[in-house]
Amino acid sequence: MAEVKNILLVGVGGQGIILASKILAQGLISAGYDVKMSEVHGMAQRGGSVTTQVRYGKKVYSPIIGKGQADIIVSFEKMETLRWLDHLKVDGKVVVNDYEIPSAPILIGDAKYPENVIEILKEKADTTIFKAADIAKELGNIKTMNVVMLGALAKAMGLEEVDWGKIVKNNVKEKFVNINIKALNKGMEQVK
Amino acid sequence: MKEFLTGNEAIARGAYEAGVTFVSAYPGTPSTEILENIAPYKEHVYAEWAPNEKVALEAAIGASIAGARALAAMKHVGVNVAADPLFTYAYTGVNGGLILVSADDPGMHSSQNEQDNRYYAKFSKVAMIEPSDSQEAKDFVKIALEISEKYDTPVLFRVTTRICHSKTLVELGEREEVGIKPYKKDISKYVATPANGRVLHVKVEERLKQLEKFSNETELNKIEWNDKKIGIVTSGIAYQYAKEVFGDTASYLKLGFTHPLPMKKIEEFANEVEVLYVIEELEPYIEEQMKAAGIKCIGKELIPRIGELNPDIIAKAILKEERQTIQYDEAKIVGRPPTLCAGCPHRGFFYMLAKKKNIMITGDIGCYTLGSAEPLSAMDTCICMGASVSAGHGAQKAFEFNGIDKKVVGVIGDSTFFHSGVTGLMDIVYNKGNAVTVILDNRITGMTGHQENPGTGYTLQGDKTHAINIPLLCEAVGIKKENIYIINPLDLDACKKTIDEALDKTEPVVIITEWPCVLKKPSPEDIEKFGNKRTICKVDEEKCKACRICTKTGCPAISFDEKASINEDMCVGCDVCLQACPFDAIEKVGE
Ligand code: SF4
Ligand code: SF4
């Protein structure tokens, strides 16, 4: 594969995006790709908008991309998808967690959570939507939402050949391994 | 073996492999994880958090004079604090190699300005190295130390957020034990009196000439020949962006050693290519020097000097390539600024403080800076670490001197107070100031991700240590015992009463709010002092009169839709909203 692929993971601080990106990157490395990943720290983690970028291919130079370049956006929160939509390729794909986290201006009543986010997304891009939070809750731990998303992403990217189970195992505490593997599989089932 | 490391992790590994035995730093994004990743090499490397960057660099200088390979790390604005020792250590030169890591933040992901610290190398006349990915970050640490020792200079190791916080593959190596160089007393070298300084300055200029020769010869500055129609001079992460855009269609002069610049090499390169671009992030540091040397090039005419670069910006600027993007109504999207966490101990105090009319609140750098946002809006200024106390003092004096009846309250965190707040407090006492100082002691360095500080009782490498007693320190500085208040910031009545009393005093006052950061893993001492119970609060819909007062506390767990409601996954039961609610509509559950 000569071309470099760009994945954007977006959401809100505290949703486990960095861990999901790490697992993703390790999976891609194990598949023999050159990988670069860019993460956010500091201020942005205090409930702010968070994004990580993972780029892979034969040889990757820049760890970040600009507008119109993401092959896929994996979004952990609905409105965040809109915020980053200008980074998607015109023929790119979106995988969205149907989940709302109101931001501070919304909480204090200065603004309203945007309506019809899903409709807009569907109209503009090839969009897969599901409720990762509910799936994670059903499995017994809302925190596994990030791994559900990861599973969906792996499927959407056609990266099923990677041994994700093994990599998840290396990255989570032993007592959470089983639930996370289940989350991974559930996530994969969400994408056709 | 290859590992996937951030630049910060790679620098830490590099220090380990290169036989460094002393490191010191003050935490600051994007530099923080360098020390956190060196700390585990406890057997080989001594690592510590210093109370501020000046102390960190001075300690590293001491270790270097003693003969050890040493490293100090900080964010770009930290170098301003450490500039004093830097400029003189540039004169004396080193014994064991010394690196000063400056982690700059183009784009201001979490900083108050975006200064380009490459100018510090030129200004202080030290050597500078700029890696462009994690592999180089690791390898260059070793090279920098060798340069430091060979040319008798500190080395500025300049990285940026995208180097610090992006992961790339790194081939690991083994640690090389270089041991400690013999220490010899050498007054003419290490005692910077004017007489010695004058001699040393001559040496520094001499050294710069040698370093320039090295710069022209070293492989750190390397030419990649491709098509010669376009030539690009670049350094750091900008090299990766340029490669991304131009690939093999342009030739590159990639600069890894950037002070002094390899002017001869640059000239040779310039002579061979048709059009010459300089692609660098932020300031025209390389471009200016090239133009001063009469080399024709295109740089900031096209490449912005504001903000972080990316391949797109470069493609647009030089190739006039505009990417197609999806068009949609961006006005629909609501901002998502960072906020004080649910249950943050600063919130209660800020909520009460912001109610006070006719005061000016001078703020500082840390989580509590977020108290400046709506709805709390509890801050008038935020300049730099420590400035809350000293700028507060200045403002109070100015008001008084000019007959304006307004009180000033400076708010600062525990770590920041140790960093440079205490000196401001000395200023207040010594100069008979009257500003109120509030030390928001959440028992940890919060914003950068929970680093120990002199008040926490633990060191970076996990040893128990003496915890500085903030009230006693204030007393020692000269604040009268009866003017020191210690309160629980989650107790709104106590906050109100204390603020009122403090504002009435004509002598300097310190309010210390003590409660651990909600995200902090409590130490045994914390549990003993503050307890460790978990409850949450709930809104009683019947009683809720939709007054929205609880939302004014700015807690992200509270939302409002006809009636208030509390997100039980987020709430930690700090009770602030419960006390704020005038209709007793919020109750405690799970006690
Ligand atoms: S991290 Fe700690 S100090 Fe910072 S906002 Fe959250 S609770 Fe407050
Ligand atoms: S008690 Fe109220 S203010 Fe405190 S965390 Fe819960 S909802 Fe927020």
UniProtKB/TrEMBL annotation, chain A:
A GO term, aspect molecular function: oxidoreductase activity, acting on the aldehyde or oxo group of donors
Annotated TM spans: none
Pfam family, one: POR
Alphabetized UniProt keyword annotations: Oxidoreductase, Pyruvate
Key word Oxidoreductase present: yes
UniProt domain Pyruvate/ketoisovalerate oxidoreductase catalytic: residue ranges: 13-189
Matching PANTHER family: INDOLEPYRUVATE OXIDOREDUCTASE SUBUNIT IORB (PTHR43854)
Entry protein name: Indolepyruvate oxidoreductase subunit beta
UniProtKB/TrEMBL annotation, chain B:
SUPFAM superfamilies cross-referenced by the UniProt entry: 4Fe-4S ferredoxins, Thiamin diphosphate-binding fold (THDP-binding), TK C-terminal domain-like
Enzyme Commission code: 1.2.7.8
Cofactor(s) in the UniProt record: [4Fe-4S] cluster
Highest rank taxon of the organism: Bacteria
Pfam families: Fer4, POR_N, TPP_enzyme_C
List of residues binding [4Fe-4S] cluster 2: 555, 571, 574, 577
Enzyme superclass (EC): oxidoreductase
Residues reported to bind [4Fe-4S] cluster 1: 544, 547, 550, 581
InterPro entries linked to this entry: 4Fe4S_Fe-S-bd, 4Fe4S_Fe_S_CS, HACL1-like, IorA, Pyrv_Fd/Flavodoxin_OxRdtase_N, THDP-binding, TPP_enzyme_TPP-bd, Transketo_C/PFOR_II
Details of cofactor binding: Binds 2 [4Fe-4S] clusters. In this family the first cluster has a non-standard and varying [4Fe-4S] binding motif CX(2)CX(2)CX(4-5)CP.
UniProt domain 4Fe-4S ferredoxin-type: residue ranges: 535-556, 562-591
Keyword terms of this UniProt record: 4Fe-4S, Electron transport, Iron, Iron-sulfur, Metal-binding, Oxidoreductase, Pyruvate, Transport
GO terms of molecular function: 4 iron, 4 sulfur cluster binding; indolepyruvate ferredoxin oxidoreductase activity; metal ion binding; thiamine pyrophosphate binding
PROSITE patterns, per the entry: 4FE4S_FER_1, 4FE4S_FER_2
Assembly and oligomerization: Heterodimer of the IorA and IorB subunits.
Record's protein name: Indolepyruvate oxidoreductase subunit IorA
Protein source organism: Crassaminicella thermophila
